[in-house]
Amino acid sequence: MTIATVARRARVSRQTVSNVLNAPHMVREETRERVREAITALGYRANQAARQMRTGRSRLIAVRIEPTRDGVNGSVLDRFLHGLTEAAEDSGYRVMLYTAADPGAEIDAYDSLLGAYDLDAFVLTGTDHGDARTAWLAERDVPFVTFGRPWDNPAETSSPHRAAVPAPHPWVDVDGADGVAQATRRLLDTGHRRIGFLGWPAGSAVGDDRRSGWFTTLRSAGLDPTGLDRAAPDGFTQGEAAARDLLAVAEPPTAIVCASDSLALGALQAVRAPGGWPIGTGGGPEVAITGFDDTPVAQAIGLTSVSQPLAPAAACCMDLLTDVLDGGRRGAADGRHRTDPSLDGGAVRTGGSPTGPGQVLLRPSLVVRQSG
Amino acid sequence: MTIATVARRARVSRQTVSNVLNAPHMVREETRERVREAITALGYRANQAARQMRTGRSRLIAVRIEPTRDGVNGSVLDRFLHGLTEAAEDSGYRVMLYTAADPGAEIDAYDSLLGAYDLDAFVLTGTDHGDARTAWLAERDVPFVTFGRPWDNPAETSSPHRAAVPAPHPWVDVDGADGVAQATRRLLDTGHRRIGFLGWPAGSAVGDDRRSGWFTTLRSAGLDPTGLDRAAPDGFTQGEAAARDLLAVAEPPTAIVCASDSLALGALQAVRAPGGWPIGTGGGPEVAITGFDDTPVAQAIGLTSVSQPLAPAAACCMDLLTDVLDGGRRGAADGRHRTDPSLDGGAVRTGGSPTGPGQVLLRPSLVVRQSG
DNA sequence: TTGTATGCGTTATCAA
DNA sequence: TTGATAACGCATACAA
């Protein structure tokens, strides 16, 4: 069944049917009704392939799914993906998946995807200093939004060689520093004075940001953070080792804020007294532990953790994208609604000129459980 | 750039270029080479939309992603999805996502997806008794494979009204009964004699299957399972309550096999002595607990659990699909390889006529940790 | 406001 | 073995 079938049944030309679908206001009310009836009676739906060939747009957005990897933190991007799929459907888009082992491979994937599918946009996750992906896409005028800020590369900006000012692009992010600050502040409020931090090695944008939340909070409380932080690659075992090291100092911290639930899990193991699990039971030396990401593991074992508003973040990404793709028109063609980012995530639109791309910084929330 | 660009450069007709791409054997070696050179020199890639319009095939497969839902078990389908995306790419396909709140909504989604995108196939997960989705798809000759067996509905098959024999379709599944049996057998070997089972309420195909693995293993060991099992909806709290109930009997079990990691987590909580976590520390009454799915939570807290070979299962699904879609030809058009299901999952091809659709039952493995 | 003609890039049919 | 032509379903420019 094609647009011609509908046209015959409604006794109009194909063009009129097309107009009813794409520019309803150009068709007389009566005719429009007749065509609409024919459409529903026939159960007609426009063929995307044909439409795409004509318009060059596919109503498809691509997002990367990480290679199979087990682990505590893997669920974060998955949850974002769930939210994104739902948000996309609400806006009349579909999500296509691709994999890539590293940023270079990801750019290859863009190339191959774009060559074949006329994708409307990409959603990028996990941005870092001087992200090559955004540069590649921007250069080719491919619409995209990043879940993660465009972290400026300090090395590059200090270089006189080139200004290296990346063109601004729409992004959504969660304020990690604020999340860690919330956790730290709460520990201060609970009476803790020696609060340690267990994070990732310096150099990762997200990791450094989270660490800064702890650092500045202690400083503004008049406390000295010196010597109270340790760094380790993300992971249970690594976290345990680093936490042991941190607890071995002369005056060990009474609480440890961690950059991830994995590290926090390791830290819990480290503070665990022989013969007992310390959470809320008073069975060992009470060291409060907080994690980051509020993964299922944290929920399961009662770990206090910073929760990212992933579904709202995904919805924001789609909103930003539809702003670009549908030229600022509110809502999709078939009248679905837009989510208001300011509603559920404590969203803050920041910076940029009013006509520039949207930038949304979401505030995470602290989920308090038994571990601290 | 189109096929015409390539044709001009190679000094052939468009059709010859098309033949080089789709039926290389029909083109003389010399010409083929010339065309191939032009293709690489130009970096030409076929436009999927145009190809799709002509052939009616999109090289797109659809799979459902569940609505955002936090929880221990959520990761299972996510991990399958990761594997499927990778396997699809290896076969020259892409994965498109959709959501649906229930089977009815899922069928609506099929309808809308099919109307718009000419999808090549669907991958269904979480089959249950008398699955309406498979019937709907089969009726319309839409290719699909299920991750999960086509459980026969006992109520329906006993009805004289209709034979209700579903047309056989390709499927891949993991032998849950065998996984639970492995766990149970290991506990028997370790000396346990009173082994309880904590599962889901009777009626769910997967749940009943897992329970049967425990039941038959105890029976064939000459033990009486009576009174040693409890049922609860999946969840931490529910598992804890049911486990307490199970441990309150006169002669309580010394080990509990659980149908999921969520339930197992609850059970761990139930057997936890006040003041200590019992895993491997001898701090309380030692009751061995095993879970199912080997989720990140299990890995994190040292829970023995049955691990499903999800990546191999996903690869099998794609193999079965390419068998149908590419008409049994080995490998995709561009010469990627097929994974051999018999390699990494302990695959067993079962039943069915040799010419019938493929059916693959994978064997899970037991990951032994401190909890039992 | 409605209808006609044309082209998007590809593959299938058929003739050379 | 290769090439010319038509057709897939839709949207756009333009004519009516």
Main β-sheet of chain A: number of strands, strand sense, barrel status? 7 strands, mixed
List the strand order in the largest sheet of chain A. Answer: 2-1-3-4-5-12-11
- Oligomer designation: homodimer
Compute the separation of the termini of chain A in Å. 62 Å
CA radius of gyration of chain A: 25 Å
CATH topology description of the largest domain in chain A: Rossmann fold
What would your notes on this structure say?
The structure is a homodimer of 372-residue chains. Chain A has 3 domains: 39 residues, no CATH class; 166 residues, Response regulator (Rossmann fold); 132 residues, Response regulator (Rossmann fold, 3-Layer(aba) Sandwich), CATH 3.40.50.2300. In chain A, α6 packs parallel to α7. In chain A, 44% of the residues lie in helices and 14% in strands. The first copy, chain A, has 15 helices and 13 strands. With 372 residues, the first copy, chain A, is of the alpha/beta class. The longest helix of chain A has 16 residues. In chain A, α12 links the parallel β8 and β9. The structure holds a DNA duplex (16 and 16 nucleotides). Chains A, B: This is DNA-binding LacI/PurR family transcriptional regulator. Chains A, B: It holds the Pfam family LacI. Chains A, B: GO terms for molecular function: DNA-binding transcription factor activity; transcription cis-regulatory region binding.
